[in-house]
Structure formats: C-alpha cells, structure tokens
Amino acid sequence: MGCTDSNTENDQHWSLESLNKAYQQGYMAGLTGQTNTPRALAADVLIAAWEAGWDDGHEQFELHKRHSA
Fold first, then answer.
1. Which of 2, 10, 46, 68 is a good FRET partner for 17, with 20 to 30 A between their CA atoms?
2. Which residues form a coiled coil (predicted)?
3. CA 66 to CA 10: how far, in whole Å?
4. Cα–Cα distances in Å, from 24 out to 1, 45, 67?
C-alpha cells in the first residue's frame, strides 16, 4: 500500500496549467520531428499529456512532410 500512496502523491503535483504546458511541449517536439522522449516530467499524468501532444504534433509533422515532397 506504501507504493500506491507514493504514486498518488506524485500524481497530485500537477495542475491544468502544467498539463497544458506538458502537452504543448510534447506537441512542439513532435511538430519539429524530435524523438518521443519526454524530458524531466515527474508525474505519470504529465508524461501522458506530453506524449499525447507529441503524437498530435508528430502527426502534423508527417502530414507536412508528405505534402512538401
């Protein structure tokens, strides 16, 4: 049960603003063709937000690349 309590504490260190920021950072990384490796995010929920942003940004990157060729 100690692990669960610790994970809950870590996941509570985020806000809507930090989720949005993580998403935007991930989006820009994906949009510019960077690798899918979130940097220095402590909470799993922030990592998930960053990865969601990266997925969306990378999709746009690939679409742009196809249309530019």
1. 2
2. none
3. 40
4. 34, 14, 23
